[in-house]
Write a structure and sequence with these properties.
Elements lengths: L9 H6 L5 H4 L2 E6 L5 E2 L23 E4 H4 L14 H4 L1
Antiparallel strand pairs: 1-2, 1-3
């Protein structure tokens, strides 16, 4: 039986005095929030693609946030793509 470790939040890393400047520098465009989950904005003009999040809004409505702090607040159906993620890791 596989065990999984609990996730460590940005506040948890700060409490442990772990500094991850490359990861902390990654910012992503997100929409939503306001008491709910955040969503990755759509790039196309269709209402929403099949199999993806229907709550995602157009990119014009997005704001940028630090990924490291917001990761746990992003909708599970939204996929975050990070072209420079391997450099940060």
């Amino acid at each position: 039986m596989a065990q999984s470790l609990p996730a460590i939040s940005a506040q948890g890393f700060a409490a442990l005095d772990v500094k991850l400047p490359a990861l902390a520098a990654i910012r992503v465009a997100l929409t939503g929030g306001h008491g709910g989950k955040y969503h990755v904005p759509r790039s196309d003009l269709r209402r929403y693609p099949y199999g993806q999040c229907r709550y995602a809004r157009p990119a014009a409505d997005a704001a940028t946030y630090p990924l490291f702090e917001m990761f746990g607040e992003i909708c599970k159906k939204c996929s975050v793509s990070l072209p420079a993620a391997q450099d940060a890791l």
